[in-house]
Fold this sequence. Notes:
This protein has 228 residues and is an alpha+beta fold.
Amino acid sequence: xxxxxxxxxxxxxxxxxxxxxxxxxxxxxxxxxxxxxxxxxxxxxxxxxxxxxxxxxxxxxxxxxxxxxxxxxxxxxxxxxxxxxxxxxxxxxxxxxxxxxxxxxxxxxxxxxxxxxxxxxxxxxxxxxxxxxxxxxxxxxxxxxxxxxxxxxxxxxxxxxxxxxxxxxxxxxxxxxxxxxxxxxxxxxxxxxxxxxxxxxxxxxxxxxxxxxxxxxxxxxxxxxxxx
Length: 228
Ligand code: CA
């Protein structure tokens, strides 16, 4: 009787240990899965940002690319809500180089806005980001679907920035002088599989939610840790 009882206790202990191991294993799996869910990303290729407008150190360990559209309300919102924090936390510290690539999902107005921006980038690169910001700021808050990116509007926005040569910009718009740059952007959009704007790609990893700053931060920190 005594022996039997002892064996039962041992059996019980074995089951208790096994159950504990299983529970810890399950918890570990859940933790890993939950951590993965914190930064949902889609792996793409590193985007070639040669010739694109950039902000920050060119040798920064992490590259953040925004695929954006001057006609897109979400891109304007991203520029106001997320971009300033990103610049403060990571671009100004030299950890991130930021680049912007044009998307033309809204047709002719997207193309005109991009063309004007590429002209400014080519002839007055020091004024590029001011023009970029000013053009987004000119986007109507209420009826953004109505046509607003016109040659007149673009020149009006540029007129507030003395570094921009107005007649150069006007001529470039009329002659579609930066067509090659637009074609480069279009090819990069296709290559990266961009289907919505803004799309944010961090070292070749596309974020599912561009407005989730915690996810952006976590992914950048993960990439920075990988560089060490
Ligand atoms: Ca471009």
